[in-house]
Design brief:
Length: 110
């Protein structure tokens, strides 16, 4: 139960930081990948030390980012929203691929 509460708290914290007065902007793929690898937004898996945690964190980030994207762009056409969601999925796949190729980013710092 705590995990779900932590995820919802992370979602709400990120949602509150977003300007809902702007919309209609598709996210840049490179920016999304960077955010996912840099830890934006913060998610519960960031506190996990297991080997799967970085991939889980990306999954959590993309879920939050996609939900907020849909909320911000609720007045846009379905085709626009679909294109945005596809970009989030693609960024997630690419970020995970980079993690697997390079190893966990924090392993270089330890």
């Amino acid at each position: 139960m705590k995990y779900s509460e932590d995820f919802i708290r992370a979602y709400r914290a990120f949602r509150e930081s977003v300007d809902f007065s702007t919309g209609g902007i598709l996210p840049e793929l490179d920016s999304l990948i960077w955010c996912m690898l840099a830890g934006v937004p913060e998610v519960p898996a960031d506190e996990d030390t297991s080997p799967d945690a970085p991939v889980t964190a990306i999954d959590q980030r993309v879920a939050i980012l996609k939900a907020v994207f849909v909320e911000v762009n609720g007045d846009q056409r379905d085709e626009f929203i679909d294109r945005g969601l596809i970009r989030y999925d693609r960024a997630s796949e690419m970020a995970k691929k980079l993690l697997k190729e390079e190893g966990s980013p924090k392993s270089d710092l330890d």
